[in-house]
Amino acid sequence: MRIGLDVGGTHTDAVLMDGNAVVARTKTTTSEDVASGIETALSVVLEEQDPKAVSLLTIGTTQFTNAVIERKHLSRVAVVRACLPAGRGLKPRADWPADLASVTDGGNYVIHGGHLYDGRTLADLDEREIEQVIEALRGSAPDSVVISTAFSPMQQDYEDALAARFSAALPQVHVCTSHYMGGLGLIERENAAILNASLLNFAQRVVTALVRSSQHFGLVCPVYVSQNDGTLIDLNKVSAFPALTFASGPTNSIRGAWALTGLSDAIVIDVGGTTSDIGVLKNGFPRQSNLVIDVGGVRTNFRMPDVLAMGLGGGSLIGGDGDQCGPQSVARELKNKAVCFGGDVLTLTDVAVSQGRMEIARATINDPAPQAVCDRVDALVVERLSAAVDLMKPGGATLPVILVGGGAPLIPGEKLAGCPVIRPINADVANAIGASIAQVSGEAEGLFVVGAQTRDEALKALTVEAERLAVVAGADPKSVVPINIEEVDIPYMATETTRIRVTVVGDLAQKEPPSR
Amino acid sequence: MKIFASDIDDLALGAVFLATGGGGDPYLPTLITRQTLAETGGVTLIDPSALKDDDFIVPVGGVGAPTVSLELLPSIDEASKVLDAYERLMGRSITAVASFEIGGGNSLIPLMAAAVRGIPVVDGDGMGRAFPEAQMMSYAIAGVRPTPALAMDYAGNTAIFETSDTSTYEYHIRAYAAAAGGMVTVAEHPMSGTQIRRSVIPNTVSFSLALGRLLREERGPIDDLLAPLKDLFADSVYGSVHKVFSGKVSGKRTRTVGGYDIGSLSLEDVNDPNRICSITIKNEYLVAMIDQQPLVMVPDLIVIVDSETSTPINAERLHYGQRVAVLAVGAPAFYQSEAAVIATEPRCFGIDLDYVPLEQLIPY
Asked: Which domains does chain B have, with CATH numbers?
């Protein structure tokens, strides 16, 4: 058996799974300290279970995203960018929101170094400059140092050389190189590396707390955390790359919809208190966005699920006799303000209660909204969601629409944009179920130069490497399959060149304890 | 008129609209121009008609592959250093700088250079939009020689060009850009006040700013914005603006060939999935057609905007499923002349179509 946990901004959900079956489940409130909410959830699902029968604990958490958004728990990061003599006068964190730049500020340094697009040296590293930066950092003592150099995704040697120098000179400081954070786009890649580095100390505390909580309940199984693409990473990797969990909220809902229905291609709508998040399942994984991703006001190159957020949820305000619904929401104050709880604000929850789609245990008013208003709101909700589904669905395809999240019953009807609506059981804990999917991934990326080798040879070599990495991450070698091959032309190379990225996934290799 | 740091976001937004799908991502140029104008207190825009006959005007901008700048970052003092070197070469001082093109990042580089030097920028440019090649510039079409030209790379290395004609110049400067890290800053097409008055597309900088401001302040569905847009364009060097299609992006194929992004785009009518609008791309949107019938073609402007926000979207940012509207804008009068049409019509891009002006294609 395994436990899936999802720590969201409002709720902490947990499920105990036996294969695909939900054995126990709970939905609790996320506590201020996070840990006690996790422990409450674990105590419910483990109530009648031997903790030794649990073979895996997997956690999806929005703690790291929220830390960036709320500017909490962040530590000081120095940035050493090697790109001079290009980029004169352009500083790291140049267009960051002032508060975030200030809490993460461990100094910005721009020095000579880097490569050009054709592989030549942009400028040699300057030993004297490096010494000066090291001297300055000895004085200012940041928590970590991010190193970024021009064209490092294509040539890593300067970043690696600088990392070795800084690690040796400043042994107490975390040193992070930007090429681990992805592809071309120095500013975006560097920003991603800074955000990640600013979370390293907090990540250590979160990991320690998770281990402590699991031990507290006598769990002896390994603990994994779900990452942006919907697969799992171990706690060592979370400690080094906490930013890889930034999108785990929407990712786990979409993956949960897959686990609940077995449909590998579908539209998924996660209906919450304030928004409905619409994503797309492709081959059982969330479709990725190609756009520049904004995290806490900063441009980054993180690869995140393509999600369209609409201001439509349980707390959405109803106005104009039913011809307005949202985006304003009573949010967390639903239980004080909504008519069905005796308040004076008409919300989408009230409409769903009146229409008999939702039963709320502690509601005091059974029929909070007039029929005519309800009918208009229902029509409006269907119209708006249909337009959004239309926007997200590929081509003219008819795909099933899976409704998940606590607010799923708010949505009326059996069709959206001509697509059949599916309402699986346990949809309200889809995110915890999504977190419990025990798969890990491996990814390999390389440049393929036409003429030097065939495309098939290049693909094969990358697939072998990706498979090796998946097995290192814990995959059962027999279960590893490729799920995505991405090819991007490199526009300015003399010979036709393509960047190929191969992603494979496999089931986490684990020994189920003997059943009794 | 003066342009301040606080105007730059609007100006850049207007420039993305006028870039007709090309021009590159204006993010980095916006960042450094805003920073420069904040430090220098802004830059003066001068109307072409206010220039004296013997003034010395030099257009300045970037030449190369815009995507290189994602790693080979631009420098704040690059453009003003090019002007310094150009003055030494020519032995005279520059009265004002001008833009190659109003589309994308090249609309901002002259502002930065002029602000550092404390000289004005001409309110106008050499395209009224973005085009992929130098011989399509209004300066070249009006007979202004591109050389002497001076190009500087990221490290301050310079090269001086003196060629017999524009196409030789274009070939040589491209080769130098490729050898010098992929992107260089260039001063070229030196002109007198008399010359620029007859070769510039006038008032496009102030227009781009007004356009960007309108798009920001009135941000909303394109059907609401169309009327104010028509009013704004009515009072400009451009022809009238029309919505010629609305639909959803249903396909996009582009490949990089010979330093250009070449390909096509298909849009599906929201109400009738069988009605497909296809758009040919060479860096910019060139021709929009339905069933082999052209809706609008180069040199008239094709602009794609998000149908909900009316934000212009350049070709590299368009993605599958986006709901968009296709707008067509009549080219400035300069580009309706025979010489300009010969230099910029669909055949110049290998498309076998005779140019038909927008007003003849729009049904009334």
From this structure: 2-204 (3.40.1610.10), 219-361 (2.40.390.10)
